[in-house]
Design a protein that fits this description.
The protein is 76% helix and 3% strand. It is mainly α and 319 residues long.
C-alpha cells in the first residue's frame, strides 16, 4: 500500500436510491415481514418442541431450518431497517466483516440442511421399512452437526481471506448489507484468491448438493409412482413438493447471485435477490411447510385447543 492510502475503518451501505417517502414505506413493509418471519418460524419451532407427534427426524431438521431462518433475517434486516430511517448509513469495519461471516455461515448451513432433509425424505419413501434403522437420532444429530460445522468453517475461510485484503476507499458498499461480492469490489488489491474460494464454495454447497437432491428426488418420484394407494401418493407428493418449493427458491437465487458472471447492470438485481433471501425466504419457508403439511396444521390445532382449555380452567378457578 502506498503512503497516501489509509485503512477504511467503516463502510457506507448505499442501499436503494429512493425518495424519503418510499424508504419510509419500505421500512414499514420490511418491519412487518421481519416480525412475521420471526413469529412464524418461532411458532414452527415451538410446535416441534412441544408436540410429541412432531418428534421425528423430518421435523428435527425442520426445527434447524427455522432457527437458521430467524438468525439469517436477524443478521441483516435490523441494520437494513435502521438505514431506511437514517441518512448516515455507516457500519464499522469489524461489524461489516462479522455480518458477512454470519450471512455466509447461515446460508451455507441452510444449503446443507436442505440436502439432509432431502436424504431423510429419500429414506422415508424409498426405504420405509428401514427408516427407523437408518435415520436414528444419533445419525440425525451427526448430520445436523456436520451441516453447522461445514457452514461455519466455510464462512470462517471467507472472513479470513477478507481480513487479509487492504481497503483504502472509497468506502461505499453498493448493497443493502455487507455482502461479500460487494465488499470485494472495494479492495485495493487483487482478489482472485477470494473469487476462486467463493466459486469452490458454491460448487460445494450449491452445485454438489443440488445434484444430490435431484438424484434423490428422481428415486423418490419413481417410488411414489409405484405406490398402490392414492392416499400414499398424495401424502408423499405433499411432503416432497413443500421441500422442492424451498429448494427451488433458495438454490435458484443463490446460484444466480454467486455463479452468474457479474456486471454493473446486475447490481440492482442482486440487491433484490439478496433481499428476497434475507427477508422473503424466511417468511415463505414456514408458510410453505405449515400450510402444505397436515401434521403441522394438526399440531397447531391441538396447541390452540390446549390453550383454550387452559383459559377455560382459569376462568373456572377465578370464578
Amino acid at each position: 500500500m502506498g503512503g497516501n492510502q489509509s485503512w477504511v475503518t467503516e463502510f457506507i451501505l448505499v442501499g436503494f436510491h429512493l425518495s424519503a417517502e418510499r424508504e419510509l414505506l419500505l421500512f414499514w413493509i420490511f418491519s412487518l415481514l421481519y416480525i412475521f418471519s420471526l413469529m412464524a418460524n418461532g411458532m414452527i419451532l415451538g410446535l416441534i418442541c412441544l408436540d410429541p407427534s412432531l418428534h421425528t427426524p423430518m421435523y428435527f431438521f425442520l426445527s434447524h431450518l427455522a432457527i437458521i431462518d430467524m438468525s439469517y433475517a436477524s443478521n441483516n434486516v435490523p441494520k437494513m431497517l435502521a438505514n431506511l430511517l437514517n441518512e448516515k448509513r455507516t457500519i464499522s469495519f469489524v461489524s461489516c466483516i462479522l455480518q458477512t461471516f454470519l450471512y455466509l455461515a447461515f446460508a451455507a448451513t441452510e444449503c446443507l440442511i436442505l440436502v439432509v432433509m432431502s436424504y431423510d425424505r429419500y429414506v422415508a419413501i424409498c426405504h420405509p421399512l428401514q427408516y427407523t434403522v437408518i435415520m436414528t437420532w444419533r445419525v440425525c444429530m451427526i448430520l445436523a452437526l456436520m451441516s453447522w460445522s461445514c457452514g461455519l468453517a466455510l464462512s470462517l475461510v471467507h472472513a479470513i481471506l477478507l481480513l487479509r485484503l487492504p481497503f483504502c476507499g472509497p468506502p461505499h458498499v453498493n448493497h443493502l448489507f455487507c455482502e461479500i461480492l460487494s465488499i470485494l469490489k472495494l479492495a485495493c488489491a487483487d482478489t482472485w484468491v477470494n473469487q476462486v474460494v467463493i466459486f469452490a464454495a458454491c460448487v460445494f454447497v450449491l452445485v454438489g448438493p443440488l445434484c444430490l437432491m435431484l438424484v434423490s428426488y428422481m428415486h423418490i418420484l419413481w417410488a411414489i409412482l409405484k405406490m398402490q394407494t392414492k392416499e400414499g401418493r398424495r401424502k408423499a407428493f405433499s411432503t416432497c413438493s413443500s421441500h422442492l418449493c424451498v429448494v427451488g427458491l433458495f438454490f435458484g437465487i443463490a446460484m444466480v447471485v454467486y455463479m452468474v458472471p457479474d456486471s454493473n447492470q446486475r447490481e440492482e438485481q442482486e440487491k433484490m435477490l439478496s433481499l428476497f433471501h434475507s427477508l422473503f425466504n424466511p417468511v415463505l419457508n414456514p408458510l410453505i411447510y405449515s400450510l402444505r403439511n397436515a401434521q403441522v396444521k394438526g399440531a397447531l390445532h391441538r396447541a390452540l385447543q390446549r390453550m383454550s382449555s387452559m383459559k377455560g380452567v382459569d376462568r373456572v378457578l377465578v370464578g
